[in-house]
Structure formats: C-alpha cells, structure tokens
Design a protein that fits this description.
Number of helices: 10
Largest sheet: 4 strands, parallel
Strand content: 5-15%
Number of strands: 8
Strand order of the largest sheet: 2-1-3-4
Radius of gyration: 17 Å
Structural class: alpha/beta
Order of helices and strands: EHEHHEHHEHEHEHEHEH
Shape: globular
C-alpha cells in the first residue's frame, strides 16, 4: 500500500466500521454469522491455528492461548474494523471470569479499538435482560459444560439446569432440529432464559420459535456475539429474539467502558 493512502474505517468519515471476527480453526458457520450482520457492515473473519485435540477442556484452553489471539487480532486489523470479537464460547469461559477479562484485554492491547468475547457478551446480555437464573444447552462433554456453569457463577448467574450432547468434534454437523430438542429439554420453570452455547451450533432459525414455545428469552452463542459486536459500533444485529429487541442504535450504551470490563470479577 502506498504511503499516505487512508483505509476507510471507524471514525474517519469512510465506510461503516466492520467487525473483525476471531474464530476457532474448526468454525464452519460463516454464513450464519453473516445473517446477523447489517447490510452496511462487513465481517472480517480470521481463524485460530489448527489443533488436533478433541473438543475437551484442554482444547478450549488451547484456543484461548493469548499468543495466537494477539496475532489473530493483529491479522484482522488491516481493514480497520470498529471492533474485534473473539467468537468462541468455550475458549472465553473455560478458565473463568478473570481469564475472560485477560482475553478481552489481550485484544485491546493488540490494537483493536473495541473488543468483545462471546462469553463476555453473554454476561452483558443476561444483565440487559435482567436474568440471574438460566438453563444452558451445549454440545459439549460434561467437563466443558461444567466450566460454563462455573463461569456464570463467577458473574452471580445461577444455572438451574444444564445438558450437553457429549460431542468432541464435528459440532457444526448438529442439525437445527437437534438444537431445538436439547433446548426444550433443558428448560425449567425457574429459568428466566435459555442459553444455547457454542458458535458452531446452527441457531439462527430456531430462536423465534423457541421463544414462542418456552415463553422466555432464548440466547445463542452466535446471536450474542453479533449483538454485542454490532452494538459496539452502534449497529443493530439483524434477526429475531428478545435480546435483539433490547437495544437499538442511538440508545445509551449499556456496557461498561472497555477498561473496566471484567475487573469486578478479579
């Protein structure tokens, strides 16, 4: 690129700011992520290095390694996104609230103007919706699902029921019908919302019908990832669900300043 050539981006009067997305190496739902993106917003996706480990706690911890996250952030900054989002639920909850904060700070320290993680976005979404008791449906083995329960407890959110599919790979091959089935099975009357974890589960077309059936908010990993990333560039994610109705562009920000996100949990 020649010297002095400006790339349109956040705050320079050019195109609408885009969203940088750091995804796990096995992420296969790019098309679903794009469905939540507004027409004037581009997604710039990059993937973490390939791992041979099965989908276990060890793999989630490896995906959350700060060094590849730092490099992936730098890689995706060339088109000057307005926010960089770490789009992996397990990688952002596996080591608890303090580690999610460190992951968030790693993205900012690597040069991102704003940062988001799927699990951090989940916590903000629950706060916006006033939810303190949740049922969770996951594709994971029990040990990974238990880490999500612990992460939510770190943020004073009670998990009233949880269920996992026990998958250690090929999660993206799970059918939407199976996703709906496990979400319905895990719901309890005392749960104020249902959360469907994992960005590799297809959920875009399931949210509206599940909310009608269950009579409560249904939050999913890709939904909350895009909701938070769009919100941080003053855009509204495209889709259905009570979460997406909770904030509109121009509304006062409901999230904490970037510098203080997660600090109360350390």
């Amino acid at each position: 690129m020649s010297a002095g050539h400006e790339v349109p981006g956040d705050g320079d009067g050019g195109d609408a700011p885009g969203i940088g997305v750091i995804a796990p190496f096995d992420f296969a739902l790019d098309r679903e992520m794009w469905r939540w993106a507004p027409d004037d917003t581009s997604l710039y996706l990059t993937r973490m290095p390939f791992l041979t480990t099965a989908m276990t706690v060890e793999m989630a911890e490896a995906i959350a390694d700060r060094r590849p996250v730092r490099q992936a952030t730098r890689d995706v900054l060339t088109p000057r996104p307005g926010v960089v989002s770490y789009a992996c639920t397990s990688g952002s909850f596996v080591a608890g609230a303090a580690a999610e904060y460190v992951l968030h700070r790693t993205i900012l320290d690597a040069g991102a103007p704003r940062a988001s993680t799927t699990s951090g976005a989940l916590v903000e979404a629950l706060a916006v919706l006033g939810v303190s008791r949740v049922a969770i449906a996951t594709p994971y083995v029990a040990s990974v699902t238990e880490r999500l329960v612990t992460f939510l407890a770190d943020h004073h959110v009670e998990t009233v029921a949880s269920a996992g599919l026990g998958l250690v790979g090929n999660i993206w091959r799970t059918t939407p019908a199976r996703v709906v089935e496990i979400a319905r099975s895990v719901d309890r009357p005392e749960a104020q919302a249902v959360f469907i974890s994992c960005t590799n589960l297809p959920t875009y077309d399931a949210i509206e019908s599940l909310e009608r059936t269950l009579g409560k908010p249904v939050i999913t990993a890709n939904q909350v990832t895009m909701w938070d990333a769009c919100r941080k560039i003053d855009r509204a994610a495209v889709g259905s669900g009570r979460l997406l109705e909770s904030w509109k562009p121009g509304d006062p920000p409901t999230c904490l300043p970037e510098e203080s996100v997660g600090m109360s949990t350390i």
